[in-house]
Amino acid sequence: MKRLLIAWLAVPSVGCAYAGDRLRDFGDLWRVEFGVGAGIQADVTAGELAHVGVGSSRRWTAGFRYGEAVAEKRVEDHFPLSFVWTIVTPDTESLHSLRWGDATRSQHRCFWLLPGELKRGTYEKERIHYYDVEVSAFGVLVGVQLGFSLGQFVDWITGFFGADLGQDDGELRERPRYWQPIPQPWEPDAAPTR
Prior knowledge:
By secondary structure, the protein is an alpha+beta fold. Helices cover about 25% and strands about 40% of the residues.
């Protein structure tokens, strides 16, 4: 009788945790951000296959990015300004660069149209976000960025069957997500280069 009572009391908490994880996984599918600042910019991201854009912006952005609230300063450069910076300072060569927060150097840079293969900067996207499809537009003072994560969509669907491809259910949700630091050659724990 005691075991039956314990099992009966455990079912609602397991069910609530399961339902909560599925709901949070659904929230991980979307990106909706609004920005205010200065610049003119438009870009499209097709996963880590291509980042194509034109223009530049300096803005403060806030919204919802794949399951987490975002509020930060951003500096983003696409062609032609990114090309100019490449000529002026070759150590910052990029087709697309993105800095956020109070950073003074580029934290994410796409050297060519294959950002996932040619990494520059100090951060890259978490692997499950390699399949995000996004559009962004910024016109003079205001802008918007919208996105849908195909990787998180697969995680949401498989989550109904007990698989956690995104490794973000339960307590794992509290770990850092989206941007992951790239080990740098001068850091002692950096991966050996080949």
